[in-house]
Amino acid sequence: MKQAQNSKTMNVAFLIYDQVEVLDLNGPLDVFVKANVVQPGSYNCYTVGKTMEPVYTEANTMSIIPTYDIQTSPKPDMIVIPGTNPDQVMKCLKDNDFQNIVLNWVKNNANNGTVIFTICTGSMLLSETGILDHYDITTHSMLLDALEAHNQESNIKRGVRYVDQEQLITTAGITAGIDAALYLVGKHHGKELVNTLITLFEYQQTRVEDSIAKQ
């Protein structure tokens, strides 16, 4: 793990969209929110939708009203992109509005220095954007072959929990998002804060040394 960075409050935007996977979203969100409780001023977390209309999560079990839409969102230092079920991923890849409006917002921010952090199949959603080109990337084990087929300019990493490429962080399935978020908190603010969060969560974390592929 790299030495902790001293930095200002980081704006962390969580992209939400139809059928978003709840733990993909809430796992990392809770890590950053709790980090900000323990060490105030660390993170400013908010959700962003295409519009301000409610977004239905996977299986329509609940709806979430975004904090901002893509027109009114503060400039993010990091965009977190949770995944969704494979059928919905393929639907999004063919959805012109999702590609041209939502993912264009992600791409424009990425091109201006925003860190992109995908959870699970969230990396697959970026397959048509060019954001993943020439990076080491991963996703849920069930979609690794599909990710490789759709991203032939990328190097697919198998058997890892997450991959840190500095401007792009991708993770394996669902709970790997929690591990990667804890890793990022440690990268930003040091291991002591991470250990406090692990104790607070009562979380049996996978060892970082066994979980990460780095550039």
Automatic annotation (TrEMBL):
One of its GO terms (biological process) is regulation of DNA-templated transcription. It holds the Pfam family DJ-1_PfpI. Residues 11-184 form the DJ-1/PfpI domain. Coiled coil: none annotated. PANTHER family: ARAC-FAMILY TRANSCRIPTIONAL REGULATOR, DJ-1_PFPI DOMAIN-CONTAINING PROTEIN. This is DJ-1/PfpI family protein. It comes from Chryseobacterium joostei.
